Amino acid sequence: MQSTWREKWRMFWLHGIPLWTTLALMFLLSMPINSAQWGYFKPNVGLICVYYWTLKRQQIFGFFCAFIIGLLMDVYSSSPLGINILLLMLTVSVTLWLAHYFQNASFGAGWFIFCLVGFGATFFKWVMLMLYFGRIINPEEVALNYLSTALFYPLIAAINVYVQKFLPQEGLNE
Amino acid sequence: MVRRSVLLIKTGELKVLLRRLFVALLFLCSLLFILLSKVDNPLVSKIDGTILNIVGPVMQVVEYPARIVHRVYTYLYDISRIYIDNRELRAENKQMLILQNKVRSLEVENQLLSRLLNYIPPAEANFVSVKIIAESGDNFTHILFVYIGNEAVRKGQIVLGDESVIGRVDKVSGKYAKVILVTDINSKIPVVVERTRARGILSGDNTQMPELIFTRSTADIQEGDIIVTSGVGGMFPAGLPIGFVSLIKGNEIRVETMADISRIEYVRIVDYGLTPDEVENLNDLSEGN
């Protein structure tokens, strides 16, 4: 009985690896870097990770994980509560649909598809925030956010590829 | 193989149905959160505060290595610039000495005139210096997270970086507080141009240079003019420097903040002795403006 619980506990932590990795990366990138130049580059790590893990391991990463990540993103980015949750859950929906066609896509293809998904997500967030605040939000900052997210994808994805090795095999989509 | 069923629904189908219901519930929750945020419901502040209290210590831990890396980088950068800086500082020092003498004489003159006019000086402000532990996670908001410990910090208090205004306290939760910067889209500060006393509102729009709006078209404003708080609305005392006019293009006037927000490690939260009720009333007034 004891070993069963221990095993369950172990599996809980192992299955949670994508979520823990995402949270750790989010916190790391919220560090005050004290640089005027690099301060502009604030990639949406949550979006990259949600896309990546939904595409690669949808059995252990889905709407609930996106909800948790979105909730944290709303708090630490001081966005209106719910905006990032909705954004990430929609990203999961779109990625699940895309996974039917591109699950075994090459790294380059995955990046290209992410650029499209990221564009849609950033545009959606921009429109949502403008509707919420009732003001025009400078598109330059939004474009910068999108570009830094798209450019950071290979780095974050490479970390996720490495982390993926530690996941239990039964959750594999392939 | 016999398939089990509950209320004429097969267990497999029931699981799928429950999963779909759960996802729908999560979507509903997110929409509900957005609506509650819009109406400023206390539940949202409570959730926000609780999460901030949970993630605050994590942010603090993560901040340490970042500071070490930054210090090493700054140290090396400073060494590389030591000769140029030294030459510039010598020249600056000469000018400062001239200015210092001028300030002294003006101070004496000011004291004499104040005495003649029976002028009552404003109360001295108290302040606490606090450490920045994290920055906003994206380009859509411009905020800072600070560790306030057990200091009595309240919503609405002014935050100074170096000697100029960089923002105000937006939320306080336990030992942490969120500071909304003057560049954030939600920031609006009544200001005056120091030279001409032309009034306006400094409005953040998520760019690095907030815009000066609601100024008269005939107002005399030039590039380089210093912008200070006007004190209108009561949230900010008058005369606190914020920045200087850096760009005038048609009707668009952009202001560059005096403090280099990206390089600040510590900020000062200033208390002008307003009670929480007064701050709340002033917040309402300011929002009404």
What structural keywords apply?
heterodimer; A: 174 residues; mainly alpha; globular; B: 289 residues; alpha+beta; Thrombin, subunit H; 6-stranded antiparallel beta barrel; 6-stranded antiparallel beta sheet; 4 helices; 14 strands; elongated
Structure commentary:
The complex is a heterodimer of chains A (174) and B (289). With 174 residues, chain A is mostly helical. Chain A has one domain (12-32, 40-171). Helix content of chain A is 72%, strand content 0%. A six-stranded antiparallel β-barrel of chain B has the order 3-4-7-6-5-14. In chain B, strands 10-9-8-11-12-13 form a six-stranded antiparallel beta sheet, with no helix packed on it. A two-stranded antiparallel sheet of chain B has the order 1-2. Helix content of chain B is 40%, strand content 27%. Chain B starts with a strand and ends with a helix. Chain B has 289 residues and is an alpha+beta fold.
The CATH architecture of the domain at 124-289 in chain B:
Beta Barrel
Q: Give the low-confidence spans of chain A.
A: none
Task: Please give the number of β-strands of chain B.
Answer: 14
Instruction: Look up the CATH topology of the domain at 124-289 in chain B.
Output: Thrombin, subunit H
What fraction strand of chain B?
25-35%
Q: What's the N-to-C terminus distance of chain A?
A: 32 Å
Number of domains of chain A: 1
Tally of helical runs of chain A = 7
Radius of gyration of chain B: 25 Å
Helix content of chain B: 25-40%
Q: Please compute the radius of gyration of chain A using only Cα atoms.
A: 17 Å
The biggest beta sheet of chain B is recorded as: 6 strands, antiparallel, barrel
N-to-C SSE series of chain A?
A: HHHHHHH
